[in-house]
């Protein structure tokens, strides 16, 4: 008979038994965290479209560690540390998610595909109807990025890693992925996972923050009726084209993101129904699925466990908290400037998690005053936030690459 021991047969258990204590604890913790993401995603506390595949990938990859031929431990999912043409080609033929990672993650393609899909869902008419209000609040919503950068430096992060982590304050997942790939490729997995985990919490956490900072009488303010001219499709197309070219001229390093976002808007407004259905459906949801799955698989304990992760966790929550506070402060400024006619809750939509924060603003206002409608204003602010978050990321990348 074959002389096979229990641990030889069940290698996932064997690698746990042979692991160093911190890796053992890390794997068990990440398995539990993955299961928690699935549970809270299914319950609607977190974004199910992203968190369920991320959670299952995270739990599975930490359970499925085995001994490789050369004595190392690893998985058959992907190897983010593979370098050199020969090594990459070998892994591409073995690890089933390696083609997705190599051909879509390491070059930022997955982020651009998500941005195209998001662009097809955005109605820039909300921005064009109230451009100054929307952009002012969106800029205020970058307060978290501005604060997190020097704070990261104070906590010992190198400038490039502090800048990449600070982009979490923009609350735009694809942009965080794109920026961290350029600025801090060694820890982009940790930054992106932290960013997406916190973005998943915004729908549940921000209402408590808003209610703590904005009294009910102000939350109940009904926005005055406005006589606004309807924005035509050609006008929206012209806005998207001009914004794309101008921003790309100013910040070429982020041109892939600008083009991806605005080509989606152009597809939406040009009447290209076939393209719109493809990019707003299969492409967007397919990219979101693989984004969540691959991010989860990248959370293998030996890869992601790093003392910096605790700093990233703290810095990420600081960035998103102060971005929300910045948006609300901007809302208070407009409330004062308009003589009390502007609802400051709209400022929370400056955290550009489209359309989540806009819906959060409307939900909070409706609880205080069922007749108050702020969603059109909030959508304009939230869409502007997408533009400003990409712009701030482009500024950081340009400054660091120039330095």
Give a description of the structure.
This protein has 403 residues and is mainly α. The chain is built from 21 helices and two strands. The longest helix is centred in the last third of the chain and has 30 residues, at 308-337. The chain has a two-stranded antiparallel sheet. The protein is globular and about 85 Å long. The chain has two domains: 1-75; 107-402, no CATH class. Helix 13 packs parallel to helix 20. Strand 1 and strand 2 form a beta hairpin. The model has no long low-confidence stretch (mean pLDDT 89).
Descriptive terms for the model:
403 residues; mainly alpha; 2 domains; two-stranded antiparallel sheet; 2 strands; globular
Strand order of the main beta sheet, please? 1-2
The domain count comes to: 2
The helix content, as a percent range, equals over 70%
The best one-word shape is globular
Could you tell me how far the N terminus lies from the C terminus, measured between alpha carbons in angstroms? 66 Å
- What is the H/E string? HHHHEEHHHHHHHHHHHHHHHHH
The number of distinct helices, counting runs of at least 4 residues, comes to 21
Q: What percent of residues are in strands?
A: under 5%
Uncertain runs with pLDDT below 50, 5 residues or more?
A: none
Count of extended strands: 2
Q: Write down the overall mean pLDDT.
A: 89
Largest sheet: 2 strands, antiparallel
C-alpha Rg, in Å? Answer: 22 Å
**Class from secondary-structure proportions:** mainly alpha
């Amino acid at each position: 008979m074959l002389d096979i021991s229990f641990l030889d047969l069940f290698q996932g258990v064997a690698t746990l038994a042979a692991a160093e204590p911190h890796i053992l604890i890390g794997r068990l913790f990440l398995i539990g965290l993955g299961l928690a993401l699935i549970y809270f995603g299914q319950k609607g506390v977190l974004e199910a479209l992203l968190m369920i595949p991320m959670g299952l990938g995270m739990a599975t990859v930490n359970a499925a560690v085995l001994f490789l031929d050369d004595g190392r431990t690893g998985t058959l999912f992907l190897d983010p540390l593979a370098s050199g043409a020969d090594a990459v080609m070998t892994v591409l033929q073995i690890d089933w998610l390696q083609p997705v990672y190599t051909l879509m993650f390491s070059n930022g393609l997955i982020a651009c595909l998500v941005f195209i899909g998001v662009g097809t869902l955005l109605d820039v008419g909300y921005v064009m109807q109230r451009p100054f209000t929307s952009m002012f609040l969106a800029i205020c919503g970058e307060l978290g990025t501005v604060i997190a950068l020097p704070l990261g430096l104070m906590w010992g992060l190198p400038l490039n890693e502090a800048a990449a982590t600070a982009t979490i304050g923009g609350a735009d997942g694809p942009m965080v992925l794109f920026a961290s790939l350029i600025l801090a490729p060694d820890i982009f997995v940790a930054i992106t996972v932290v960013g997406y985990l916190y973005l998943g919490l915004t729908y549940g956490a921000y209402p408590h923050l808003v209610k703590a900072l904005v009294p009910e009488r102000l939350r109940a303010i009904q926005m005055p009726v406005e006589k606004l001219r309807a924005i035509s499709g050609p006008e929206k197309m012209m806005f998207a084209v001009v914004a794309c070219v101008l921003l790309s001229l100013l910040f070429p390093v982020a041109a892939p993101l600008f083009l991806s976002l605005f080509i989606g808007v152009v597809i939406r407004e040009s009447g290209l129904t076939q393209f719109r259905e493809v990019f707003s459906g299969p492409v967007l949801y397919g990219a979101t699925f693989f984004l969540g799955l691959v991010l989860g698989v990248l959370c293998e304990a030996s890869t992601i466990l790093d003392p910096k992760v605790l700093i990233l966790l703290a810095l990420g929550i600081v960035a998103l908290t102060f971005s929300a506070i910045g948006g609300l402060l901007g809302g208070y400024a407009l409330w004062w400037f308009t003589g009390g006619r502007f609802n400051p809750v709209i400022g929370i939509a400056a955290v550009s998690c489209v359309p989540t924060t806009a819906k959060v603003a409307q939900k909070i206002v409706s609880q205080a005053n069922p007749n108050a409608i702020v969603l059109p204003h909030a959508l304009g602010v939230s869409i502007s936030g997408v533009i400003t978050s990409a712009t701030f990321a482009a500024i950081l990348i340009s400054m660091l690459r120039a330095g």
